Amino acid sequence: MSTPTPAERPDAAPFDPAALQAQLAQLSAQLEEVVAETRHTRERWEVLDELVTDATPVMRQFMGSATERLDAMDLRRTLEFTGAGLGVVDRIVKAFGRDDVEALGDNVVLMLQVVREMTQPEILGMLRQTATWAHEHPAPSEPPSLMALAARMRKPEVRAGLDRVLSLLEGAVLSATHPTTTAPKEGSA
User: Fold this and answer.
1) Could you tell me how far CA 88 lies from the centroid of its own chain?
2) Closest to 186 measured CA to CA, from 168, 9, 178, 176
3) Which of 17, 55, 100, 159 has the fewest CB atoms within 10 Å of its CB?
4) Please, what is the angle between helix 121-136 and helix 98-118, to 10°?
5) Percent of residues, the chain, with pLDDT higher than 70
6) What does the alpha-carbon distance between residue 22 and residue 100 come to, in Å, rounded to a whole number?
7) What is the secondary structure of the chain as a DSSP string?
8) 19-28 burial: b if 16+ Cβ within 10 Å, else e
9) Where are the domains of the chain?
């Protein structure tokens, strides 16, 4: 059996050399685009390879320096400290919920302002003296009688200290209930 020629097939289009030449030109153009893209990709890979080759010694030197620094920082103590810090963070995460964290975010500026005020040298000195005194003078097993308290009130420094504490408490209460009101002057009681 022989294959029919295009002229013998009823559905065959006549041979058009111009159409074939146009298709070959289109294929040639597409092939040129593929070759150009391949060449461009190869050039980018070569640049990247050069970069990696040039950067390798620098990265090795950086890693060596970083390793030496970690050794100098006593890596073991640092890791123990970090582990303990992560334990604290874990306890905080377990103890507080999303609402607590959002409330914290709402009040962070106020808290930082309080911390800034609390770290003034005179405040820290007063807190240190108070803590030292409280440590050296433990609370009595039984509360003092009214007469013992009245006897202590005869000392001017006790009255001045009590006035100071009452003024601080009064100022805190007033500023909490009426933020525009200033604290009373000491000795006004």
Assistant:
1) 16
2) 168
3) 17
4) 100
5) 87
6) 74
7) -PPPPTTT-SSPPPP-HHHHHHHHHHHHHHHHHHHHHHHHHHHHHHHHHHHHHHHHHHHHHHHHHHHHHHHHTTHHHHHHHHHHHHHHHHHHHHH--HHHHHHHHHHHHHHHHHHHHHTSHHHHHHHHHHHHHHHHSPPPSSPPPHHHHHHHTTSHHHHHHHHHHHHHHHHHHHHHH-TTSPPPPTT--
8) eeeeeeeeee
9) 148-189
Which residue shows structure tokens 């294929």?
27
How many residues belong to the chain? 189
**CA–CA separation, 151 vs 146, rounded Å?**
9
Q: Are 36 and 44 in contact (CB under 8 A)?
A: no
Cβ neighbours around 12 below 10 Å, total: 11
Give the separation between CA 127 and CA 120, rounded to whole angstroms: 11
CB 3 within 8 A of CB 9: no
CA distance 31 to 25: 10
Q: What is the pLDDT of residues 98-157, one digit of tens each?
A: 888 888 888 888 888 888 888 889 888 988 998 999 889 888 889 889 999 899 999 999
Rounded Cα–Cα distance for residues 129 and 121 (Å): 12
